[in-house]
Write a structure and sequence with these properties.
The chain is of the alpha+beta class. It is built from ten helices and nine strands.
């Protein structure tokens, strides 16, 4: 497999954005490519003629020269990292939107950002290795065009992660009977609505654990878990390791 130099890939910078209040980055473009990795909240993005309502785990690709604008959701806020890079021979079929379902892109991005904070903009072997691993992971992701039903329900879930949501609440929000709602949702996502809610809670907890120093008990409450023990049990079952292991990661 060719390394990043042979592919013409060159990392330019890594940055972090966590705006507060009303925030709008109006139409603009770059002479380089950019990946936007979303950690928390929601952003409304126009990329050329396409519109995206982003969610934690989304990865957007802004090709060089393509105008785009971003607007922070006033209720959910937004936190994301951006990675600027050059790639003269970028494939023409690279999707503008992908989803980091396993959290690998987010973890690699966090490590890459920390390496830049510690070492500055100088090229280091570790920075190149992290960048190459991140790009390989990104190229393996698929597109994530969502059905409107999934978008509506997941947006509602994210706004109420800390609440005691029941299947009745979700079906009512979707304006469907429980039976039809569960069947339709599972067909579209591969999960039942409550399984998907649990996945979103774990995903949000993962983001908070790696990007903040909040106590695990407080994070559990924010994400709708009964307590820290329930969150830890689900982490071990679904992800394979306890939450505190993320805090011990390099």
């Amino acid at each position: 497999m060719r390394n990043i130099e042979e592919k013409g890939l060159k990392l330019l910078h890594v940055g972090h954005t966590h705006p507060t209040g009303e925030w709008l980055m109006d139409w603009h473009g770059h002479t380089y490519h950019e990946l936007i990795v979303f950690y928390q909240g929601m952003s409304h993005v126009d990329l050329g003629p396409d519109h995206y309502d982003t969610a934690p785990g989304d990865v957007l690709f802004y090709p060089a020269g393509i105008p785009h604008r971003e607007h922070r959701d006033p209720e959910l806020g937004v936190e994301h990292y951006f990675i600027g890079f050059e790639w003269p021979d970028v494939p023409g079929d690279v999707p503008h939107r992908s989803f980091d379902s396993q959290g690998r892109i987010r973890q690699l991005t966090l490590w890459l950002y920390e390496e830049q904070v510690n070492r500055g903009f100088h090229v280091t072997p570790l920075k190149n290795a992290l960048f190459e691993a991140l790009m390989l992971e990104w190229q393996q992701l698929g597109t994530t065009a969502q059905h409107p039903l999934v978008t509506v329900v997941r947006t509602f879930m994210r706004r109420h992660l800390a609440d005691d949501l029941r299947l009745d609440d979700l079906a009512r929000h979707a304006s469907m009977s429980k039976y039809h709602f569960v069947r339709s949702y599972a067909r579209l996502t591969g999960r039942t609505p409550m399984e998907d809610l649990r996945h979103l809670r774990l995903n949000h907890a993962h983001n908070l654990i790696v990007s903040t120093r909040e106590p695990l008990k407080a994070i559990a409450a924010q994400c709708g878990f009964a307590d820290g023990r329930q969150m830890a049990r689900l982490f071990r079952k679904q992800i394979g390791y306890p939450p505190k292991a993320l805090r011990a990661a390099p």
